[in-house]
Amino acid sequence: MTEPKLLSGKKILITGVLTESSIAYGVARMAQEHGAEIVLTGFGRGLRITEAIAETLPQPCDVLELDVTKPEHLDAVSDALYARWGHLDGVLHSVAFAPPSALGGGFLTAEWAEVATALHISTYSFAAFGRVFGPLLAKSAHGSLVGLDFDASLAWPGYDWMGVAKAGLESCCRYLAQALGPQGTRVNLVACGPLRTLAARGIGGFDQLDRVWADRAPLGWDQTDTEPVARVVCALLSPWLPSVTGEILHVDGGAHAVGAGQERG
Fold first, then answer.
1. Angle value at C-alpha 69, between 190 and 65, nearest 5 degrees
2. Is the pLDDT of residue 1 over 50?
3. What is the DSSP string of 42-60?
4. Which among 41, 36, 45 is positioned nearest to 22, based on CA atoms?
5. Radius of gyration in angstroms for the set of CA atoms belonging to the chain, rounded to a whole number
6. Rounded distance, CA 218 to CA 82, Å?
7. Mind listing the domains of the chain with CATH numbers?
8. Rounded to whole angstroms, how far apart are CA atoms 14 and 264?
9. Which residues are known to be catalytic?
10. Would you tell me the crossing angle of helices 112-119 and 160-180 to the nearest 10 degrees?
11. What percent of the chain has pLDDT over 70?
């Protein structure tokens, strides 16, 4: 007897697919393998790239244009999904950006305009997703909004204003969980260890982060493998964790839990 798939019949919106190394791409592939029907988003010069990447998935899917800083784009995507499905079961928020001047040692020198860009795209957009897609998620029996995070409890080399944006994202998650809980929608974050994605290339201190994880993670950490993160995201998007909300799940080999490295057998 074949076991039912984790996301069988679920309708899921996935943002942030730009290359096959993207965490969101790993989620999209796994979600389809577990029975979900998905739609991706892209914008600007990356839209055609996302459309090409969508053709490489197990089931090629549509891509909608979405610049998270434009309210009209958010509304248009919501309208398109309502016309297509009538509801949403899950949304992956895999959106983050900070101008180069706000990273790599620019914490004290970045101007407000650059900081505002980082906070708008990386933090406020999560709340905007809750506001715009919340009504569609409310129509699902197991609506779930999941965001990607990087541990904001410490200051990391080169992460600068993105670290502040992620701290805001974590607070935003708690407030969204409070706001959307009464309609039955869960809101959670997955705090990943460092992965060699396109976004990571813009972080000047990434090599230092890589060394920290190699030394500290009790389970070890493969910075080229997005599957462990994709598995947890798909679990959160599924009905299997019905009472988990406002949570930050660390998928980092355990590095967040220990203060120094140890030998592994």
1. 85
2. no
3. E-TTHHHHHHHHHTTSSS-
4. 41
5. 18
6. 44
7. 11-250 (3.40.50.720)
8. 36
9. 159, 166
10. 40
11. 90
Structure tokens at 100: 């180069």
Sheet holding 11-14, edge to edge: 63-65, 37-42, 11-14, 90-93, 144-149, 186-192, 247-251
Rounded Cα–Cα distance for residues 80 and 82 (Å) = 5
Which uninterrupted H or E stretch holds 134? helix 125-138
Sign of torsion over alpha carbons 152, 158, 161, 165: negative
Helix (H) or strand (E) holding 210: helix 206-216
Closest alpha carbon to 118 in 61, 70, 160, 181: 160
Q: Are 143 and 184 in contact (CB under 8 A)?
A: yes
Are 239 and 7 within 8 A, CB to CB? Answer: no
| Residue 125 structure tokens | 């957009």
- Is residue 184's pLDDT more than 70? yes
Identity at 244, one-letter amino acid code = V
In sequence order, what E strands does the chain have? Answer: 11-14, 37-42, 63-65, 90-93, 144-149, 186-192, 247-251
Q: Write the DSSP symbol of residue 89.
A: S
Instruction: Name the residue among 45, 36, 46 with its Cα closest to residue 13.
Output: 36
Q: Which two tokens stand for residue 6?
A: 């984790």
Amino acid sitting at position 118: A
Mean pLDDT of 165-193: 97
Q: Do 160 and 104 touch, CB atoms closer than 8 A?
A: yes
CA–CA separation, 135 vs 116, rounded Å?
27
Pick 107 or 218 by higher pLDDT.
107
